[in-house]
């Protein structure tokens, strides 16, 4: 099959010179071009390409980017298929512009052995609409006690390790995990939370939690674990990746560590640069997440961290929960929000349009950044590269309606928001998955 993408603004981010590079990626290519695909490969990029045998995809007025990669997704399979499956989650990912998803290991059973990883790979082979790159757990059963068989994970295709949803509280276990993961060149993704400080909490600890009478989760609970993880990464030379950065002091800790040459990377999620804990004032459980929404000062620090390159990637932390689970008192509701179909419009509206990031920098956070952290040969549009491509309209403005989403759940705090930016065409390994905004099988 040949596909010819005509007349789009082709943006191909370029990697920074090193992890110490303070600025986000500048584009290696940013020009109105055509892209010709044959089978699964990009075979030509240039102006005025013609091929009578190719299927034409019109990209006039749109941006042609490397396929987005979500390095932090919860697909709930196996165990909670009522919330999400590999099929439904990857369909949702395609609608959001994603060509690859990295599902976290906190499934039921936990992805803590190669049999579960092989099951995920088999399900992905049958049902996934995107590439699926599993994340294996750091410890057996997410209990923080016994490290998993990392070598077997690597052979099975695991791209990172994480007990996400829980921290690895035992510092010696985390230190050993960094050492063993380093032997296989795998990053350890850390859910940074001192659970002794957050026990019983359900929102950010501060003025709003006092007014609302809800138990708080202090920012210090995140900061102390980030400081510990950086210290252990400095000591071992292992690769630590800080998940879902939410507060100002975390940004500063990562910034300093990078300056010192510590092997640390970081991600944040759209709700942490778009919302404050004011969103909890209505007791809307769709605004309950972990880490919790913080203050305006924290939001500004996260945006600055994205701007100066301290935060390498934007992930969704897509965490579906059923309506029944969320329709309870705020303190009793589960943590988490969906995000695959709202990430791009929030990036365009809250970061690009507000001047925090240039469009190429924003694309790098969705593509090249996660690709480099996970060791994937993705995140670029080049001749000879695999044809994973997202074409989106940055000017398309519309009202978010969660009832139109492909994912199984509706727990989003952004329902009803007017945002800009929409995926129009998505091509995964040369196969059209989204054309003119419609899923194609």
From TrEMBL:
Keywords: Hydrolase, Metal-binding, Pyrimidine biosynthesis, Zinc. Residues 61-247 form the Dihydroorotase catalytic domain. Zn(2+) 1 binds at residues 72, 74, 164, 317. Binds 2 Zn(2+) ions per subunit. It comes from the Bacteria. GO terms for molecular function: allantoinase activity; dihydroorotase activity; zinc ion binding. It catalyses: (S)-dihydroorotate + H2O = N-carbamoyl-L-aspartate + H(+). GO terms for biological process: 'de novo' UMP biosynthetic process; purine nucleobase catabolic process. Catalyzes the reversible cyclization of carbamoyl aspartate to dihydroorotate. This is Dihydroorotase. It comes from Abyssobacteria bacterium (strain SURF_5). The lineage of its organism: Bacteria, Pseudomonadati, Candidatus Hydrogenedentota, Candidatus Abyssobacteria.
């Amino acid at each position: 099959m040949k596909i010819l993408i005509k007349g789009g603004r082709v943006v191909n981010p370029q990697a920074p010179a090193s992890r110490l590079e303070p600025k986000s990626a500048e584009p290696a290519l940013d020009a109105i071009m055509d892209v010709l695909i044959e089978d699964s490969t990009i075979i030509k990029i240039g102006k005025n390409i013609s091929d009578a045998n190719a299927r034409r995809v019109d990209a006039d007025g749109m941006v042609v980017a490397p396929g987005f990669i979500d390095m932090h997704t919860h697909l709930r399979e196996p165990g909670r298929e009522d919330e999400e499956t590999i099929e439904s989650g990857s369909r949702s990912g395609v609608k959001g512009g994603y060509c690859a998803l990295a599902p976290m290991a906190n499934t039921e059973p936990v992805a803590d052995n190669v049999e579960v990883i092989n099951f995920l790979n088999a399900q992905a082979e049958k049902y996934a609409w995107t590439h699926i790159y599993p994340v294996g757990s750091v410890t057996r059963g997410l209990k923080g006690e016994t490290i998993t068989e990392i070598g077997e994970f690597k052979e099975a295709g695991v791209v990172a390790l994480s007990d996400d949803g829980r921290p690895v509280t035992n510092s010696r276990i985390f230190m050993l995990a960094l050492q063993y993961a380093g032997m296989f060149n795998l990053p350890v993704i850390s859910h940074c939370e001192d659970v002794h400080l957050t026990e019983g909490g359900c929102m950010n600890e501060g003025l709003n939690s006092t007014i609302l009478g809800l138990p708080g989760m202090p920012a210090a609970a995140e900061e102390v674990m980030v400081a510990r993880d950086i210290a252990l990464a400095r000591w071992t030379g292992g690769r630590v990746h800080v998940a879902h950065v939410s507060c100002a002091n975390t940004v500063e800790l990562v910034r300093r560590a990078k300056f010192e040459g510590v092997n640390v990377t970081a991600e944040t999620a759209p709700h942490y640069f778009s919302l404050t804990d004011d969103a909890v004032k209505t007791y809307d459980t769709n605004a309950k997440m972990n880490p919790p929404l913080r203050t305006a000062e924290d939001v500004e620090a996260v945006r600055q961290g994205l701007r100066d390159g301290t935060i390498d990637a934007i992930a969704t932390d897509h965490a579906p929960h059923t309506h029944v689970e969320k329709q309870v008192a705020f303190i009793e509701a589960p943590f988490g929000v969906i995000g695959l179909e709202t990430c791009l419009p929030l990036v365009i509206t809250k970061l690009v349009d507000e001047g925090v990031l240039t469009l190429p920098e924003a694309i790098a956070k969705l593509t090249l950044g996660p690709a480099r952290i996970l060791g994937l040969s993705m995140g670029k549009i080049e001749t000879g590269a695999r044809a994973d491509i997202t074409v989106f309209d940055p000017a398309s403005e519309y009202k978010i309606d969660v009832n139109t989403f492909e994912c199984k759940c509706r727990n989003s705090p952004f329902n009803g928001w007017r945002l800009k930016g929409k995926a129009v065409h998505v091509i995964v390994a040369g196969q059209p998955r989204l054309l003119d905004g419609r899923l194609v099988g």
